[in-house]
Design goal:
4-stranded parallel beta sheet, 360 residues, 14 helices, binds iron/sulfur cluster, TIM Barrel, 4-stranded mixed beta sheet, 43% helix, alpha/beta
Length: 360
């Protein structure tokens, strides 16, 4: 049966869940302006106030050493490379202290999967942040790093996560999901754990009360079917524990990555708006959809606030992973407030867990 816009609209208005075919319709055929309108209806149903949240955060890296070799990554260096680095716990704590002094409340820290680092390194970092900087949330480690900790320590994923939680961790970032489809993973990150392992890490985390974000990096080798498979996987996991705080999509940046030969350009604003609106409609159990000034540019970020997003991400004072691809954007807390206001919304600062700290 051919999917029609009217039938999708009716289903959404009566709060019925969309099917795979309807998801494909949103990604392939739905007129972009209609899609935006539907996504905004849904956004206003969930968040009636015209408030757009943001977090004051930074994104430092403790090591760029990695043995996973993803073809879309310009950030990592192999063990022994002359540009490889690993910072000590003390160096990272001092750096985090300088950010805390500037008002940062979330530190989103990820790095390579470095086989030389013992599990205690990670625990000491979490404990150190909690002890020295009580206003900072350590939003640390992607699923691949958690798997790396399990490998070096001989512990299960659950044991690793319980120890991180006992050390003071409450949330995990969603990095490394890319597209949760085995066919895509085999093409772009063949050594990274199988697709179910990203889901497994987040499932185990949610089961013990940790919260996390779900991400998606599109615009490389995936098909619309792969994107719906990704949506389906995270929607099903959200049904289990409700542990995801938000969904954060961004487009792949090919600069300086091995994949640049096959994909020389990054996906543009139209595709971004479509992804964002489709996710708002398909992910009916996610409260927050994040627009990114950082990965798509400030103007596209503003438009995205009219395509279903209710959050504008973070200030990202330091960021090196996207920057390694040559795609560089910077902002300040003041500028974020202006951008959000200019787009027609009231800016509000939030915590890692989306609690409002201050409305401006
Ligand atoms: S994306 Fe992460 S896991 Fe993959 S190579 Fe880069 S640092 Fe390593």
């Amino acid at each position: 049966m051919t999917v029609k816009l009217d039938s999708v609209r009716e289903k959404l208005r009566s709060q019925q869940r969309l099917t795979t075919e309807e998801g494909l319709f949103l990604l392939r055929d739905a007129p972009l302006l209609d899609l935006g309108q539907l996504a905004m209806e849904e956004r206003r149903r969930r968040h009636p106030a015209s408030v757009v949240t943001f977090v004051v955060d930074t994104n430092p890296n403790y090591t760029n050493v990695c043995n996973v070799d993803c073809t879309f990554c310009a950030f990592y260096r192999s063990p022994g490379d002359k540009e490889a680095y690993t910072h000590s716990v003390e160096e990272m704590l001092e750096r985090i202290g300088r950010s805390a002094a500037k008002g940062v409340t979330t530190v989103l820290m990820q790095g390579g999967v470095n086989p030389e680092l013992p599990f205690d390194y990670y625990l000491d970092l979490v404990r150190g942040v909690r002890e020295r900087y009580p206003d900072v949330t350590p939003h640390f480690w992607s699923a691949a790093e958690i798997e790396g900790m399990a490998a070096v320590s001989g512990l299960t994923l659950q044991e690793v996560l319980v120890q991180l939680k006992d050390a003071g961790q409450t949330t995990l970032p969603g990095g490394g999901a890319e597209i949760l489809s085995e066919s895509v993973r085999k093409k772009i990150s063949h050594k990274k754990g199988v697709t179910h392992s990203w889901l497994e890490v987040h499932r185990e985390a949610h089961a013990i009360g940790l919260r996390s974000t779900a991400t998606m990096m599109y615009g490389h080798v995936e098909t619309p079917e792969d994107v719906v498979e990704h949506f389906e996987a995270i929607r099903a996991l959200q049904d289990e524990h409700g542990g995801f705080t938000a969904f954060v999509p961004w487009s792949f940046k090919p600069g300086n990555t091995p994949l640049v030969k096959k994909i020389p350009r990054h996906a543009g604003p139209n595709q971004y708006l479509r992804m964002l609106a489709a996710s708002r409609l398909y992910l009916d159990n996610f409260d927050h959809i994040q627009a990114s000034w950082f990965s798509e540019g400030k103007k596209t970020g503003q438009v995205a606030l009219h395509w279903g997003a209710d959050d504008f991400g973070g200030t990202l004072f330091e960021e090196n992973v996207h920057a390694a691809t040559g795609f560089i954007n910077q902002t300040s807390t003041e500028e974020l407030k202006i951008i959000i206001r200019e787009a027609g919304f009231t800016p509000a600062q939030r915590t890692t867990l989306y609690e409002i700290l201050k409305v401006f």
